[in-house]
Model the fold of this input.
Amino acid sequence: MRNKTRNIFFVFGIIAIIVMLFTFKVSFAELWADILHAGYWLVAILGLWVILYIMNAYAWRIIIRGSGDCSIPFWKILKVTITGFALNYATPAGLMGGEPYKILEVKPYIGTQRATSSVLLFAMMHIFSHFCFWATSIIVYVALAMNGITSLGTGMGIILLLMAIFCGGGIYLFIRGYKNGMVVKMLTCISHIPGLKTWTRTLIETHKEDLQKIDIQISELHSQNRKSFYASFGLEYVGRILQSCEIYFMLILFEAGDGGMLTFVYSFLILSFTSLFANLLFFMPLQLGGREGGFAMSVAQMGMTADIGMFVSIICRVRELVWTAIGLLLMKVGNNFSTPSTEKTN
Done:
């Protein structure tokens, strides 16, 4: 990627972080007090995300290797993964920032088509694992309710039913997409949106053959490389569960729950319900407001106080800011290494 293009992504990310800081409705004194309260647990939370990003990078590497040789050094995949997520956190509509950046960074190694298909496949796998994660949380919550541990009134029943319909629909669409490819169909649907009709149809007509090849590569991962598909999915799904430790650490700090398996299950449910609510507000940069509201409602449903919800949301926001800053800084590091050109063969 040219440094000029990289700098555009960098500046865009910095602007988004500045906007977020100025709209963060917490006083510096309250923020600092919560950071001090978190203490070494904040270090553990930040360290947890090292593991999660490594798992994400391995999942993406598996997808790349599923379509051929992978000449990209793992440190490069990890660096681009962290920066890609940083851009997704900082930009409205999420994938508008990180995915184009990742394609541009890895295409000198594996060509435009494989870079595009691998990034799209990883994004699909990441979202697909979220749908499966949310679906699992519905089953877990109902199981707890049947044992009298959580409440299941009419209101919560309706919410769980709507969640089940949403997750079931999402899982179905992704399975269809994995079997048949979804890029051409997705662009065809977008072409019916007013204002995007001409641009999208021109894109399809100009790059129809390339887009069809990308769809073939997407379907091949599911049909011909089942081992790569399930290995990548397993890493992503386990990563979502492992992320629950972030909330678990904070619940231990507040002595909420018994500190054992039940507390971890609460953490799992809080993360699931909060992430679902926040992702429904995907158009917000850094999911401003959605994350905080999701934590407030989730901890209340678990029978915990609003103070715990506020504390968890603030520490999670601090973690996001730290890793977003790290991701943007990594964008400026390790860019002088020569890369093999594969464009002529792709």
